[in-house]
Amino acid sequence: xxxxxxxxxxxxxxxxxxxxxxxxxxxxxxxxxxxxxxxxxxxxxxxxxxxxxxxxxxxxxxxxxxxxxxxxxxxxxxxxxxxxxxxxxxxxxxxxxxxxxxxxxxxxxxxxxxxxxxxxxxxxxxxxxxxxxxxxxxxxxxxxxxxxxxxxxxxxxxxxxxxxxxxxxxxxxxxxxxxxxxxxxxxxxxxxxxxxxxxxxxxxxxxxxxxxxxxxxxxxxxxxxxxxxxxxxxxxxxxxxxxxxxxxxxxxxxxxxxxxxxxxxxxxxxxxxxxxxxxxxxxxxxxxxxxxxxxxxxxxxxxxxxxxxxxxxxxxxxxxxxxxxxxxxxxxxxxxxxxxxxxxxxxxxxxxxxxxxxxxxxxxxxxxxxxxxxxxxxxxxxxxxxxxxxxxxxxxxxxxxxxxxxxxxxxxxxxxxxxxxxxxxxxxxxxxxxxxxxxxxxxxxxxxxxxxxxxxxxxxxxxxxxxxxxxxxxxxxxxxxxxxxxxxxxxxxxx
Length: 495
Known about the structure:
The chain is mainly alpha-helical. Helices cover 44% and strands 0% of the residues. α18 runs antiparallel to α19 (480-493).
């Protein structure tokens, strides 16, 4: 067993960057925020903090689809206030929170550190990471020159329009009294209130898409493997949006946009988009694809921990290049198995809310897993199976998005998940990504339960959640007995 340093009991921006999970402390913050209370005073910028710059924005052309830059959002009277104002139905400090507290503005800073330089050296990149299009495509907002209508600086990191969409068609109009959210979407704004859309946008970097590929070559060079779950990742960020309950009635979404609904729908959308991207790579569709690509497979089948700093752990063994991770290979005939991480939790939801699709999905997942693990399977055959899975999941995602998540349904789902502890433990013990998804699912469901009923914030439940998280971090491979025992405790504690 290899012991890793325990996670701190607080929300720290480095947590997800080091590839682990959101601490229970975040559940408490989420529960408080859901009650409509302001964040603690220490989390707020001080009154003496410097105010955001207020340069006069350059009026964008009426043509939709062009990027105008984050500076156009930064006026104090718009989204650049240092403290919430809520004059116009939004907090109005969104730019300030993004710039000073959120992880996305700092994403580009990663490209200047030693790890990124080591990755570039291992890959033999001609340009440094901070100038490489392959890196900037996810670590910054970097549209081509032909799609710029305002000042775009890659040093701003992942800025507003990476998620909300190029603003030239809606930036001016969305401040008008008679302008609705629907008008903005029609003019080119990305509808992030829609869970499936928001999940897809996030997965553009946290999974990959054309021009944004984290394949096995990049992971072997030292890049962290990509992990994602839309609810945990959204709640981990310092929110630069108002809770649904705090929105003006006219702009309040009819159904929750965050929380357990996002978790459940995101499970299906994540596997669906994963299958679509797997199909693209297996077909060899684009210069950034190749097959087989081991990044789709269970890493633990080939890798085990080595003492830090060994030549094998550096990927290329280049002198003077720091080892990004500890790794080595052990002999195995054929390919490692496909990672079931995006299916292991979703199956519990399908069994409850789309039981008629369960048999077909079980068969499609088994077929895809078998094909991916055989080097003799032609790429087009793998692609066809992945596309079939994605089509089935489209209907499942839509059905999950209509589920009404009351307290009883949340308890039932959490208990059902915990009751399958033996199956989940076996999968988690063989695949670290699956273990992570199980723990994040427990956190999402427990957090939603606490929001609805503060009595659920029992000390024994908190201790069990912390122990489950520590079991994931400390045990390599996962201790199956410990995992099962903790899931049994959680099942009993949420009854």
